[in-house]
Amino acid sequence: MGPRPPVSGARRALLAAGGALAVGPWLAGCERAPAEVAGGWVGADAARGHALRDGRLPRADASSARRCSVAIVGAGVAGLAAARALRHAGIDDFRVFELEDAAGGNARAHTMGGMRCPLGAHYLPLPGPEAREVAELLHELGVARSEAGRTVYEERHLCHAPQERVFVPSVQADATAPGRWHEGLLPLEGAGTGTLAQLRRFAAEVGTLQRALSFAMPTLRSRWSAGLAALDAQTFAAWLSARGYDDARLLAYLDYSCRDDYGAGLGLVSAWAGIHYFASRHGFHAPGDDDAEPADAVLTWPEGNAWLSERLARGLDDRLQTAALLTRITPARHEVALEVWNARAARPERWQARQVVVCVPLFIAARLIDAPPAALADVAPRLAYAPWLVSNLQLHAPLLDRPGPPPAWDNVIAGSPALGYVDAMHQSLRPVPGPTVLTHYWALGGQSRAELNAQRARLLAAPWAAWRDAVLADLLPAHPDLPQRLARIDSMRYGHAMIVPTPGLRGDAALAALGTAQGRLHFAHADLSAGSVFEEAYTRGTLAGQAVAQTLGGDPTSRRST
Ligand SMILES: Cc1cc2nc3c(=O)[nH]c(=O)nc-3n(C[C@H](O)[C@H](O)[C@H](O)COP(=O)(O)OP(=O)(O)OC[C@H]3O[C@@H](n4cnc5c(N)ncnc54)[C@H](O)[C@@H]3O)c2cc1C
């Protein structure tokens, strides 16, 4: 084993906080799990992705090329938003190519026992003033409406109370005192005055930064400045340590927030990202303070953000080609050549387009494009992507509950290396609980690039049953009756789920350069924002679609109904 990096004060406190950094009790406690719970890997065709990486697919004859004005590569949220912008501008001669069997990317859904559940993204915070495109979409979809100058959201799409709770296992867990649930994600029971003082100091500091610097969601609407660059230059852990933040509860909560939004902990993400998480939205409020605001409202659906992506994909008809793997993009003077592997027909295709919107992660774009733009070649080696595991647990009956507040939409287990679970039936208005699906999230980015790479290797190498057992072991302290209620577990593993905002990335000049057209190529993916959330992907896709429409002479503002 090589030398270990020095452990900062912040990191030391976090380690002491109870294993939030470690991958945890790998398979520990599994003797209590049922020997065989059915299920398996779902959601991604690994063979297709590997075929692209290995470059072993046949190529189509150039003479058979078909034409379209615009090719959109990737039908995640950004690609679907680009298609919507083109249609609004009256441009219909486009084609969307998507590797998987369904559109949506990280915002796709799954179905178990007739119940829909997310395979990835599961909520959208209410858009703030800078997320204009998202707000417009929500109005168009009937999620929001204007009343007397105010935006009103449809109740059924707002997360119903209770929104979140956390299970704190007792220190000497035994059958008589196993631990209990608490409201919110940062319970203060048993906290000393030192904890509260640090929470208040952090809240004040976030407020000061929020007023002094430009934090925005989406971040492309921020005015970049020396102050933001200084935050971006260091890890969040280093920034916290330098300011004397060493309270275990605060650090564990901040680490949880980073893993939840960025897929990696505060040792790997930048201080810009750590502060942006709060400052671009609702700020940070110390629980228990008089001015503490209730948890911010979010929009959610049983199938998560697939509710949105499925509506974005409606009406695309045969302009959306799924199971279509882009294998090469070759820009030329007058057109761009695209080589596509049609996985359904098991044959290669060739297309020519005047403009191309590249909506795949940038590390994939760098592999696809012949002679990639200099900015892409420059930034690609610096990008880090967090691996994630998402497990959907189908229950044939509701779980018994530990003491404390009742089941919430978001249920977190303190000290767990994972992120807890959301309940797909939480939004149902049924009078008594019944069968449901719990979606368990596990971000595996860790605290360093080495840890991230090791966890990805483990995610991809370990058999499904090993991860099933690890997920069960994670949940058993809070839900010992889980094995008796469990019908099936379907798991989705993402080797490269989301970009990690590592130090320097948000202010990276090459990354910023990709925000403007590179010849006939327009890049649109959450990666460009150094952070993957719906608002970033959707805004990038919309702006790229509008830019293409302008280039082609369409009217990006015509708002033709689609
Ligand atoms: C587990 C998980 C949970 C998340 N939870 C939330 C959440 O609750 N709220 C939130 O706002 N965000 C969440 N996110 C972030 C989410 O990534 C973004 O919200 C958004 O969906 C990203 O969209 P995108 O279009 O930028 O990228 P992607 O979703 O990565 O879309 C890229 C698309 O390109 C396709 N593609 C790749 N290679 C090729 C190829 N060679 N040819 C053709 N197609 C290709 C992919 O299949 C994919 O469909 C979550 C992400 C993950 C992984």
Largest sheet: 8 strands, mixed
Secondary-structure-derived class: alpha/beta
Q: How much is the average pLDDT?
A: 90
Strand content: 15-25%
| CATH superfamily heading of the domain at 46-112 and 305-380 and 503-552 | FAD/NAD(P)-binding domain
Low-confidence stretches: 1-33
What is the CA-atom radius of gyration, in angstroms? 23 Å
- The CATH architecture of the domain at 46-112 and 305-380 and 503-552: 3-Layer(bba) Sandwich
Structure report:
The protein is of the alpha/beta class and 562 residues long. The chain has a domain at 46-112 and 305-380 and 503-552: 3-Layer(bba) Sandwich (FAD/NAD(P)-binding domain). 30% of the residues lie in helices and 22% in strands. The chain has helices at 9-16, 46-54, 77-88, 132-140, 193-212, 226-232, 236-242, 248-262, 271-279, 306-313, 362-368, 374-379, 449-461, 464-475, 482-485, 509-513, 534-552, and strands at residues 39-41, 66-73, 94-97, 109-112, 115-118, 123-125, 144-147, 150-153, 164-169, 179-183, 298-300, 320-321, 324-331, 336-342, 347-358, 385-395, 410-413, 420-423, 436-443, 486-499, 521-523. Residues 1-33 have low confidence and may be disordered. Bound molecules: flavin-adenine dinucleotide. Residues 52, 73-79, 97-100, 105-107, 120-124, 305, 325-326, 359-361, 364, 388, 390, 494, 497-498, 525-526, 532-534, 537 line the site of flavin-adenine dinucleotide.
